[in-house]
Design a protein that fits this description.
This protein is of the alpha+beta class and 340 residues long. Helix content is 37%, strand content 18%. It contains eight helices and twelve strands. The strands form three sheets. The chain has a five-stranded antiparallel sheet. The two termini are 41 Å apart.
């Protein structure tokens, strides 16, 4: 196969090609680093999905298995035209590429509003970690507790004794590989320190000392809003997990991918909205008409996991020339597949 460092700057017209419809504005081929990052995310996602598909099949979670397959095929076949690439997106939360797009969109929408909150605080609310069989119930309890707190604030405000909560929140779940436990928790940005303090007080009152403790909660003023937004807008779970979180800073053992733990988290979060706002509205976005381009002047590309890149059907060219690092390749090839 011929390998070149860049995709062609122009496409080759082929009279045998049928007319195709390209949707959207496409991704610029000239941004080499962006396209290499895209190839890296695709490599990570496709490798993990193969493991998750087998796990979902074993557990007979066929709906989630189909969702994993959709993510596996996300951007697998793309087309290039006029120095841009076009393809379909799965929009699933376990797709690293779609999550990266989602993250950028949320930051663009929320940053202009949150930057005006001069006393904003970043808050983490958590409860005691649980085993896998209690994960779904714990997640439901976490969201139910937050709804109860919001209702309390709303009723007090209606009686003239307080204020509504204003902020954004996301649900995340960590996996402790040493104890084989899961820790669902909420990350929030709220408008004032007073809200942060009252929120933690209400959280502790609902969960009681039997299920959580004040030292497990966290609040801190926001000095870097973009960093805090990135912290909030995650995938729902970390893909790479430290084997021993207590030795995270001193251990030379690299993080691992615990595929069964990831599946347990995705299964428990199925159908749950993991990011939301409360207490304020966003300005309505103008609906952008879907741009359609009809053309025969395009090239077809297919992602090959062995190459970690898209290759051209006709020329054998590689699209990004991305090279998977030895460290990443080791992590992907040594996923932990045992039941967690």
């Amino acid at each position: 196969m011929a390998v070149h460092t860049l995709a062609q700057s122009r496409t080759i017209y082929s009279p045998q090609k049928p007319v195709t419809i390209l949707n959207g504005s496409g991704t610029e081929l000239s941004n080499l680093q962006q396209n290499k990052n895209k190839a890296k995310r695709k490599t990570i996602t496709q490798t993990i999905m193969l493991a998750l598909i087998d796990i979902a099949k074993e557990h007979k979670h066929f709906e989630l298995m189909q969702s994993y397959w959709n993510t596996y095929h996300c951007q697998s076949h793309i087309q290039s035209y006029n120095k841009k690439t076009f393809g379909k997106y799965c929009k699933n939360r376990h797709c690293t590429h779609c999550c990266a797009i989602r993250k950028a969109n949320i930051i663009n929408r929320y940053y202009p509003i949150l930057k005006n909150w001069n006393d904003a605080y970043f808050v983490t609310l958590t409860s005691r970690a649980v085993k896998a069989h209690n994960l779904k119930r714990n997640i439901d309890g976490t969201l139910r507790a937050f709804r109860k707190i919001k209702d309390r604030f709303r009723k007090r405000n209606e009686r003239g004794n307080g204020f509504n909560l204003v902020g954004i929140k996301s649900l995340e779940c960590n996996f402790n590989a040493t104890k084989k436990t899961y820790n669902p928790h909420l990350h929030l940005i709220v408008q004032t320190e007073e809200m942060a303090n009252l929120l933690i007080d209400e959280w502790l009152a609902i969960w009681t000392k039997e299920h959580t403790h004040i030292v497990a909660q966290d609040k801190r003023p926001i000095n870097d809003l973009e960093h805090c937004l990135i912290e909030i807008i995650k995938y729902g779970s970390k893909i790479f997990t430290e084997p021993d979180i207590k030795k995270k800073k001193t251990s030379k053992v690299p993080p691992k991918i615990y595929a069964n733990a990831l599946h347990n988290i995705f299964y428990a979060m199925k159908g749950i909205r993991i990011f939301d706002r409360f207490g304020f509205n966003l300005q309505k976005q103008m609906k952008v008409k879907n741009q359609k381009t009809f053309t025969k002047d395009y090239q077809n590309w297919h992602f090959d996991l062995k190459l970690n890149d898209w290759y051209n059907f006709e020329t054998g060219e590689l699209l990004t020339n991305y090279k998977c690092s030895n460290e990443l390749d080791y992590l992907l090839q040594n996923m932990e597949l045992n039941i967690c």
